[in-house]
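Write out the bound-state structure for adenosine-5'-triphosphate.
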Amino acid sequence: MSDSSASSSKSAPLLSVNEVSGLFESAKKYEELNVIGTGAYGTVYKARDLLKGGQIVAMKKVKVALTEDGIPLSTLREIALLQQLGAYKHPNIVRLLDVCHGGNSLEREQQLVLFLVFEHVEQDLDSYLKRAPGPLADHRIRSMSFDILSGVDFLHSHRIVHRDLKPHNLLVASDGRVKLADFGLAKTYDKDMRLTSVVVTLWYRPPEVLLGVSYNTGVDVWSAGCVLAQLHTRTPLLPGASDSDQLHCIFRLIGRPPRAEWPENVSIVIDSFPEYPPQDFADVFPRIHPHALDLIQRMLVFDPAKRLTALDCLEHPYFTDEPLT
Amino acid sequence: MPYWYYDKKDLLTTPSSRDGITTEAENRYRKEGARFIIDTGSKMDLGYNTVATGVVYFHRFYMFHSFKTFPRYITACCCLFLAGKVEETPKKCKDIIKVAKSLLTEQKFASFGDDPKEEVMTLERILLQTIKFDLQVEHPYGYLLKYAKCLKGDKAKLQKMVQMAWTFVNDSLCTTLCLQWEPEVIAVALMFLAGKLSKFEVVDWNGRVPKHTAWWDMFVEDVTMELLEDICHQVLDLYSPQTQPPGAESPPGGAARALPKNDKRPSVTPPASVSPVAVNTNKPTVTPVKNGADIKLEPPKMDPMRFTYPAYPGLAPYPPVYSAPPPNIPPPPRLPIPTGPPPPLVYSEPPPSRFPP
Ligand SMILES: Nc1ncnc2c1ncn2[C@@H]1O[C@H](COP(=O)(O)OP(=O)(O)OP(=O)(O)O)[C@@H](O)[C@H]1O
Ligand SMILES: [Mg+2]
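---
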């Protein structure tokens, strides 16, 4: 056919565009099975990929507020980055398999439903620890610690700060490998879209976040330190009940920081806390290997600049003294 | 992750061709759409990266949709709009539409409908779904500069060669090469072409090892001469009189040039699949190179988005924009440029010289 017919279809483009868009609710490629988790910003479903022989996947549904100029730049950047990271196939990062959106049924509400399709991983670290019949074997703790820090180091080497590391966001595969999930979408998670019913846990938050000062990659090292401690004890290390209680918990463990280290421009004054002395970590964690103790202690340092980096952690004697098996 | 490379035969059985559009017409639509993205982008001071990303989206989009369903100019606008956001050089949708309107005839702009902005917004979601949210696109430009840094030889000549290759890369956006080969391979091929045309023979390079027979062996494995020539031909064909002038109602009488076989793909690519869905993409074997070269190569200071060969010494400059090379250009070895009357100039207005930064 000549292109005269091609140009004739130009007369009704609006119609054609809208008609065809209906076909592109490719979220329909997936059959939802059940809800696996509800977080503050979305629901995660277990689903079947109908185009790939029924492979089981985890689908995260995220609502994105549309702007006057369509899908926000920040969301596009974050998705592009997730895709880019995915190309590295890092063993400790949950694999992003597909991204799709739920068509334009919600068009008038000025929001778009995004589906992020991830590899399905057996369980999260929270349920893994709850289900453990007794203390984890030392070699398990060590390899899980190494996995977590490798994932964190990978993100940091790509200038990504996770900001919300916690057992719920760490997935444990059937072979015991730990993978980081739920990162890279900080800007997409619009505050207005937050489900207020979901309580955001504070237990893994570092002091700089609780105090509201600027933060960086150090947040993840702090959070990872809390998680590493929890691998040994199977209970949260710093279960604060509120923002201020969380700070009390922290200072009761590591001691109130010296005045010189208290950040400027913070509304909370240092004197609102008693002069807690630092505890001896050996008393807090009886029976754990001194190397493990030393590593955790160096991760839970008040001043983010004095904390180990994720790479430092990986080179700590806890991991290097004996080869990991 | 989606896989975006196609065999030549896949490129002949596109949604458009199933919709009754001839391959010649489709290629012309692709060329016009790409050209329009380049023109609009240049006019809006967008960088070459953003423009190239937009063009790649455009080509990928029409591997899933027919030009009959989605008119090319509005799709082109949408691709540029999305690329602007992804490359962090955002432009307001209404501004892109304004520029588009200024570049298009009234009849062509009619395809934007009554509410062009709404149309582009709707299309954005279709586009995202079609390209599977695979937003980050790599282009040959960076590889070009990286490879050039390793080559030894006369600096001025090298610079000239890179400039010419840069222009070929711009021009290659109007072909379907980005649907066939990784940017690394395109960069090698077009540098090879520029080397031939500018008579810059690369005899030595940093990181050379005995088993290398050509400089590109360092970067891409198993690139055959047939492949290089095929890629070069596809770019040179843009200047050839076989190119149907836009607006022609029927495909050219003669059959298209016999298509070189594409079955010997270099090992940088996994076998192409018809549907670009979730094939394991082995990252191309791009050997990192310690480069001790002291040459500082920046994107050439010229107007590389122009559709002309860069002028080189001793040869008359090519006529501007979208025309056949003048017949007095000596054909590069084994790369005969078809002769014949040049097609009419279509884009008479050269884009403003903005590229690269
Ligand atoms: N790939 C996956 N495989 C299996 N389960 C998953 C996967 N991703 C997430 N989950 C489960 O879903 C829960 C919520 O996921 P996710 O953390 O991504 O959502 P969220 O909205 O950010 O939640 P939160 O705010 O609590 O971090 C996780 O705690 C985990 O149990
Ligand atoms: Mg989470």
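---
Confidence is low (pLDDT under 50) at residues 1-25 of chain A.
Chain A touches chain B through 42 residues (CB under 8 Å).
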